[in-house]
From TrEMBL:
Pfam families: GCV_H (PF01597). InterPro entries: Abitram, GCV_H/Fam206, Single_hybrid_motif. GO terms for biological process: dendrite morphogenesis; regulation of actin filament polymerization; regulation of filopodium assembly. Belongs to the ABITRAM family. It comes from Megaselia scalaris. One of its GO terms (molecular function) is actin monomer binding. This is Protein Abitram. GO terms for cellular component: dendrite; filopodium tip; lamellipodium; nucleus.
């Protein structure tokens, strides 16, 4: 889900695509208990591209290293879900279990995120 303060949500979202240029994340094929076949993502790997009502595009990064398990294809038909908790998730990324604590420690709190917006 995008942060409620994200510029695209303030202006209005026109579209979302999982085709990031060199690959289409919606073509991800995951099988079995071990989630074989999931695309490996780095923190800065783009998951999706959002276009707002002013035709400005935003790359949505993974923010964590892990396997792409699924993308929310419902967003392709109804971009208004993007700002909604629960239904508005963009993707599910599964980190390695041994990296979970480090990943949690590296994530911003809401206050840190809001402070970073004020610096822009």
């Amino acid at each position: 889900m995008l942060a409620p303060e994200h510029e695209a949500l303030r202006v209005g979202v026109k579209s979302i695509t999982f085709d990031i240029g060199n690959t289409n994340r919606s073509q991800n094929q995951v099988k079995g208990k071990g989630k074989k076949g999931g695309m490996i993502l780095q923190q800065d790997s783009a998951i999706a591209i959002i276009t707002d009502n002013n035709d400005v595009t935003y790359k949505v990064p993974s923010c964590i290293q892990g396997k792409l398990i699924e993308v929310n294809e419902r967003l392709l038909k109804d971009v208004s879900l993007l700002g909604k908790e629960g239904d508005g998730y963009i993707a599910v990324v599964l980190p390695k279990p041994e990296q979970c604590e480090d990943i949690k420690a590296s994530l911003m709190t809401e206050d840190q995120y809001l402070a970073s917006l004020n610096k822009l």
